[in-house]
Every structure is written in C-alpha cells, then in structure tokens.
User: What shape does this take?
Amino acid sequence: MKAKLPLSLAILVSLLCFVNSISLANTSETSQQHTISGFIYEKGSRETLIGATIYVTELRTGTSSNNYGFYSLTLPAGNIELVFRYVGFHPVIMQINLSDDYQLDIELTPSTVEIPGVEVTAEHVERISQSIQMSRIDLPVTQVQSIPALLGEKDLFKVIQLLPGVQSGQEGSSGFYVRGGGPDQNLIILDDAIVYNASHLFGFFSIFNGDAIKNVQLYKGGFPARFGGRLSSVLDISMKDGSKEKIQGEAGIGIVSSRLTLEGPIIKDKASFLVSGRRTYIDALIMPFMPRDERGGYYFYDLNAKLHYDHDRKNKFYASGYFGRDKFYFRFNDGRNFREEGGLYWQNATTTLRWNHLFNNRLFANTSLIYSDYTLRIYAEEKHDGDRYSLSYTSGINDIGIKYDLSWHPTPNHLVRAGMQSIYHRFTPSAFVLRDDYFGENIREVQSINTIESGFYIEDEIRLGDIAKINTGFRLSHFVHKNKHYVKPEPRLSILLFLKPDLSWKASYASMNQYVHLLSTTGIGLPTDLWVPSTKNIEPQSTWQIASGFSKDFIDRALELSVEGYYKKSSNTIGYREGASFLLIDDPSEAENFSWEDNITSGQAWSYGAEFFLQKKTGRLNGWLGYTLSWTQLQFDEVNNGQKYWARYDRRHDFSIVAIYELRPHITLSGTWVYSTGNALSLPVGEYSRVSHNPWGQSTYYHNNAFNTENTPFSVTPWSYINDYSSKNAFRAGAYHRLDIGIQTKKQVEIFGAPVERTIEFSVYNLYNRKNPFFYFVEWHYDRRQLKQMSLFPIIPSISLNFKF
Amino acid sequence: MKRLHIIPYRIRQIKAQVIIWTPFLAGLFLFTACIELVTDIDFPDQEPKVVVHSFISPADTAAMVLLTWSKPISKPGNDGIQFIEDASVQINDLNGNMAQLLYDPVRKLYIVSTSEFQIFAGQQYELHVNVAGQPLINASAYVPFANQSLTFQRLDTLPSAGLDRVVVEYSFTDKPGERENFYAPKAYRQIVVYDSENDTTKLHQIKMFTTYGENYISNNGKEGNTFQLRAETYIYNDPFEPDGGQEVQNPINILLLTTDEHYYRYHRALENYYPDDFFAEPVHIYSNIDGGLGVFAGYNQYRAGHRIKIRFTCYP
Assistant: This one.
C-alpha cells in the first residue's frame, strides 16, 4: 500500500507534466525562434565531449551535450551570448546574432594546455544546484588516473567504491554495493552493452582499462526512464572514440600488468580508431621456475577497440568492442602414459554497432545493435593408457539486443526523450559434459533458457522559469520466458526547486524491475556466480526508491555539496537457499535431476540512509569527502527462521576522503582514507549434536557417551555437530580503515626522437599497515577453539611507469 | 646516426635505474611478506542453550522429547551430549488435554505413552519445557493426516560397477487442503542382522538413497501434483546376508510421511548442512523452539511393502 501511493502520485504527475510540456512546446513554436545545434569536441583529438554545458547568458538557461556530444538549443531571435563549458577545459564564449537556424560545432581546449588570459575557474564547472538529476555522480577520468591504487593498477570500480552511497564488498574486491543493493543490481553499460561480470582475478581488479574510457556516470537513484533492468544503480561508461587528428597513444608498465593504447585517424577528421590492450605477466615470470612436467599459472587480459566514422553531419557510425579473459590452468605430463590438465576461465565479450542520426536540428536519434556474452568454464582432462576422462562445466549468458533512442529539444527549457530496447537473452545456468572411457560414460547435460526482455520509455524534462525543473518519465518493461509474460509499469519522477541561484532542493521517485538475477554464494563477485532469468516460478525483483536532498554550489571555492536521504524497498529479491551452492551437483550423472530454481529463495530488502558529498573537481587541490549513514535489512521466509536480519554489507558508517594536490606543474600528490563499519557476518556461537528423525527407531548408532537411540524416533550422527549461529549475520566484523598515498611525477622526454610524456608513479597501499578483516575462521587450539581473523593486504608499495605519446 | 647513439645511452640509463630500484623494492616486498596476517580474536559472550528434539505421531506408541545442552564454541574440550535430566516437560493439545513427560534414565529422554496421552491427526500440540535457571521454553506442532496414495511403479535389480543395486520407483499424489502439505518419502531395504549379545537375528531397515525426486517435499505451487521418486541401494554381500549365489525374497518398504512445516524446514536445513563447503551459504538450522534450539514437529505415515527376488553374488 505504501508503495502504491508514491507510484500513483508519480503516474499522475507524469501525465500532468507531459500534457503541460506538450502545450508549452506548442506555444513556443508560435513565437519567432531558431535552433542552434552542433557537436562539442576536444581540441587536438576531436573526441566528442559528454555532458558539456551550453549556457545562454541573457536567458539564464542552457542545456548539456548528450552521450554523443550533440546539443540543441531553440532560442528567440536576437543577439545572444553562449558559454560552452566542460570540466577540466577552457570555456568558449561566443556572441551570436540568431536570425536563422544555426549549426555550431565547438572545440574546447583541455586546461592542461595553457591559453593566455583564460583561467579555468569554478564558473566553468556545471553547477550541481542547477541539475535536476539527483543521486548521480560524474567521475572525471583524470581523477581516476590520479588516485593511488593497489599494486598501481588504476581501477575505476575501486574509485567508485570511495563515493558516498557506494560500498565495497571484501577487501580488495572491485564489486560494489549501491544503497544496500547487491552487485548484480548494478546495470554496468559499456557503450550501451551490458557487462555481466566486470571483474578480473576473482574481483580484485575490474575489467575496465582507464586508458580507453572517456566518461563515467553513476546513478544511485532518481533513475531516468531511459534506464531499466536493474534495481540499484546504473554505471554508464563510454569508451573514447579515438583521435581524428593525429596518431597518439599511451603505454604503461606496472607490477601486475602492462598496457598499451593506440588511437588515431583513419581518414583525417572523418574516421578514427582506438585499440587498447592490457595483460598480466605473473604466469610468464614464474614459468622458468616451474618443473618442465608441471606447468600452471594465471593470467588475464583485455582488449578494447573502437572505430568511428562521420559519414556526414547527420550520420555518424561507431563500432566498439571489448574482450577480456581470466584463466587459471595447470598441466602435468609424466612423460610416459599419463597426462592431465585442467583449469578455470571466464570471459566477457561485448560488441556495439551504433548509428547516430540527426533528423533535424532538434531531433537526434541513436540506434544500437548490441551483443554481450559472459562464459565461465571449468574443465579437467586425464589421459591414461589411451583411456580418456574429461569433465567440463560451463555457465553463462549471451545477449543480442537492439536499442533505439530519440531526443527532441523543442525549447531550451524543454527536452523530450523516448525510445525502446529489446534484448534476446540466452542463459546457460549449467552445462555438464562428461566422458569416461573406462566406465563407458558419455554424459551431456545442457540447460539453456531463452528469454526476451524489452522496455519502452518516454521522458520529459522541463524547466519552469526560475522556480523549478521537473523530469517525468514512464517506462514499460516486458519480459517473456516460455509462455510467462511479465509487464511492469515503471513511473519515474524528479523535481528540483530553486531556493537560491546556488541552492536547490531535489526529490525523486523511481520504480525499477529486474528480470535477470545473479545467484551468488559469497557476494564477492566470484566467476562461479550464476546468471539466471525470471521464470514462472521466480518473479522479477522489483524496487521503489524515494530520495530527497539539497544541492549547493560554493562557486568561489569550486566546491559542490549534496546532502541526500533515501528510502528503498525491494521485493522478490532472490538468493541461494542456505546450504545451496553452484557445487550442489556432486555427480554429473545426476545433473538431469538438478534444477537451479529449487535452490532459490526470494525475500524482501529495506535500505535507508543519508549521504553527504562535498566535491571539488578542479583546482590544484581537488577530490572529495563523502559520508554515508545507512541501514540495510533482508528478510527471506526460508532464512533465519523468516526473521529480518542485517545484510552482509550493511554499514552503519562509511567515510572516505580523496585528495589530489598538484604540488608543482609536474608533481602530483594524492591520498585516500576510508573508514567503514565492519560487515555483518554469521559466526558460530555454540554447537549441538546432529539429531534427525528416524521413523523406524532401529538405529544402532551409539554416541560417545553411550546414548542408545534404539527404539527412539531419533537418529544421532556420531561426532557430527550443528553450529548455532544465533541469528544470521549477528556478528559484526571489525571496522575497516586504510590510508593510501601516491606521488606522480611527469616529465617530457624524447624516446627514439619522439616527444613523450613520461609519468612515474610511486604509491603505498595501506600505509599504516592496518590489519583489516578479510574473513574469520575457527581453529582448534589444543583442547579449545580460537576465533581468528585473516587479513589480506598489509602495507604494499608499488611503482608504475607510463608513457603518453 | 644520432639515434644509434641514443639507444645504448638509454639502455645504460635504464640499467642504472634498475640497479637503484631493485634492492629497494625487493626490501619492501620482503618486509611485506613477513607481516603476520592472522590475528586472534575473542569470541563474543556465549551461554549454553536448551536443545529440544521431539517428533510426535499417531503412529508411535509414545511421545518422546530429547533435551540436551548446546556447548558454547569457546568452551574447552568436547564432552559429547550433555543431557538435561531434571527438566519439567509438559505436552497438551488445544482441547484441554495435558500430560507430564517423565525422564527415562535408560533412553535418556522424556516420555509419555500414547495410552496416557493420545496423538490425533489434524490436531495442534504444544510443548512446554522448564529448566532451572532458563526462561520457559515453548513450541507447537501440528499433526497432519496420512496420505495413502502411494503406488509402486518399478522394483528391479540393476548391475552396476562392482556391486549390484536395488532400484525402486514409486509415486504419490498430493491431496490439497487448507494447509500447505509437506512430505518426507523414505524407502528401506529390510535385512537380517545378527544380534551377538542374544545370539539371535533381527530385522533391520537400510535407508535407500533417493536418486530422483526430493527427500523433503512441499506442495507449494504443486498442489494436486503426482510426485515421482526413485530410490536405490547397493546389495552388499555382508556376513548377515545369504551366501553368494543364493536368491532370496527381500522386502522393500516405503514410508510416506506427511509432516508439518517445522519437520520439513528442520530436515531440509539439515540436508543442506555442509559446513565445509566454502562456496555454500552458512546454514542456520531451523528451529521452532521459543527460548531454545531444536525442533518440535508432528508427522503421520503410510507404509507399503513389496518383495523383490535378489540374487546375491560373491564378489572377490
């Protein structure tokens, strides 16, 4: 009932605002107006800039460039001043006499390139108090590159974990939890393609190579209607298009991996390419120290590639792709008649083909064809005297999708978006293949499930003078599995009230549904986690979230502050039943009897809290300070006797401070400090004998003190004890805190006659060597047991070398 | 030409840097590797709890309650089962009938015969346990009606690698009612066991493994369904079996238990209890004991038997 009230309100306001906006748009059409539109590029590379602002000084209004760098403003005829701004770039101010429709492409110069008389100040940053989108954080990629990282590996996800409302999982893990939601509730999109497993090395590193990334936006709430399919967050990542002006690149050598990026024009100012690769080399380094008959190792690599072609002003084409793989392997050969090998690998592949089309100066369209694949495979093979035994287990998800988005800019104060997306999912929750020549077994059990997920949306953003901004949206999602159809309406609403020119109040409501689910046993993003769909037995997960808060710009100090409170209620959240795991099938020949649906239980989740975020994106000293106060509880009928319990990653307090300081033009110091309440864990507090019902009463087992269960309905398993965990997740792990520091020095050098910017970075992870809890275990200590805490990373120094050419 | 001079110079420069940095980094990593990462932590405060186990049925000749103490995990030693011998245990139905269960020091449990307190299908029962120094412990259970729709579908012996197997396939049909139904089908192979103390033989039931279907079934979402099951056991040629080469008629018994939800949830949790599986969620064993641990549950049963001719083979 509580959920229905905001839902009904949102639908009502959506309809009213949409009707209102259409009438306003029609009224505007009647006056003398012209449209100015174009693309905003980075000078030097002609890379389009996402989210650059265009401000009309006289009208005190403006817009921002979309994900393809396109903007459109329809304004009254006359003299106007336009200011084009982007974080970390010099602004461009232009005086225009608008007497006709006008096409204006703008190139902005990075602030690293000095322009006499022009200074990058706070005025040049988009004001948070003016943006209707709440609960969104734009992460400058330059900041990601400057923050100290574990083993020197720059990791987008590790930086995201430092933001308020976002929590890390285990120590070192790149999985993240947004406002109490699980890692599978994050929609991670790379150039429109969904990434299903964004982790390397069991979650210690994310798959995103910072050198190939142009833009990162994280939505924690107030989701625009164009996004759907996940409950907790949207992480929208755009790859660089590649420089259209000159060949350039970047290379890096680190302790864990090395990487190389090359980009440049194929046809100058018309077509470009980008290729970026990364690979670890631990396996290659240890290979010489391993015996010749026994080989094993681990590696991961990833490869990003993109092609961009500007056919003409109205049509642009993009083809982008990602492929990455992690692999553990071993091989043994006794040199005579026995050979064995085995391993585990998981891989992601995404491909996106996009076509941008301008129907006219006000109407922009994008069409995307999307392919995404995630596969996990565990395999083992033995050959002995001609007999062969081989076993493989595979699971994964494979998507083919189409997406169509339209954006229409009828007036500077009005933007309408509409579109659709449809994805054909092919799930393989488990596939067993067993061949055993000795016992003559040949088993092939493959479960595959085909589903279609679709969404249609309309979004209307309107500014009501100096009073308010309203973004109303409606998304209709649809999912079909066999004959079972789910159709779910998802109203969205965001409101901004201007209290002062630099202070605003915001509120939002969003309803979301999730039709694909990740079954996770540990919640740390292991590759063994299974993606499964909603079925007639498993309903879609759904949530509604309300958020409200204040945003304030401190213009003189280039600071922006947001304080938000949120409440989120989720239903039909799913998880493994207690005791269930992906290893449930001991015997592959029984695979036909196994159904993953039988191992699932569904429940509810509540999450609420407050977030404080003070950010400085520019200046010699920049960074942020974030604090989250939050509560997250779960309830499953089959877990914890149906009682509510704290989620594993419920954190009462989560604090982070990130500082990047430019000591000299070529020396940058950086540091981060994080503090968070410990995880909620289940820890045994007692134990008792394992007693079950024996209806025959004829057990002949005797216990160690001669308890004879003969002629009783009890069966007591000798020397087998049940742990009493009290309540689920009743134990609170120790608090987590850590300080990392780093120093980067840049120098222009010449290598083989070519000018190269060389960066040496030295960083220290966990500077004061805090022993943070990774997991707990109970160990026998003579005649008693001792609780032990295992920590993972002590103080770890690292050095890396980067070249930019 | 100039470039040719630059390359050796660069190589020398890199070499110099490697010479400077390598000992420094090696030292740092050695320091890191020496850091102890495991630390001792105190257990949270723990007290023993009362553990109650009781399964009541109209099919039984008595209602029995097993009372034991749980052991705090931090307590030294292993004392085995700690029985509670001085508790006050009462059982009652909702019609005003009540009985006190008395401690049987031989069987080490509390007992009341069904001649003194009868258990009926379709009734709710309450259990009250009072242990000195502990809060009053309460629990309730429901005794369902039996389901008699059991059907044998196949009874066979199958050759297998090393040992032959007995296979039984059977089914039953759910009878939907107001309550959710729970089942625990069990198949047994009856064998003859030699009792050396009394120099006699007696019958013993070997539980067969369920190889198709589930050990504990709920009819939730499957109301009125027919459930198919298969159970198997190996034929061992142990000393109490006939000699190899003989053929005997061996009874196979099926028990179809209808249970209450407490029975189902407790045993399903036990079935999923693999404390050593790193990948599995820790299992919290279900309990309906208010103020303690364990389970108080009701069940009913229907039994059907068949015989199969088994040929015992001598294996080396």
Residues 2-33 of chain B form the longest helix (32 residues). Chain B is about 15% helix and 45% strand.
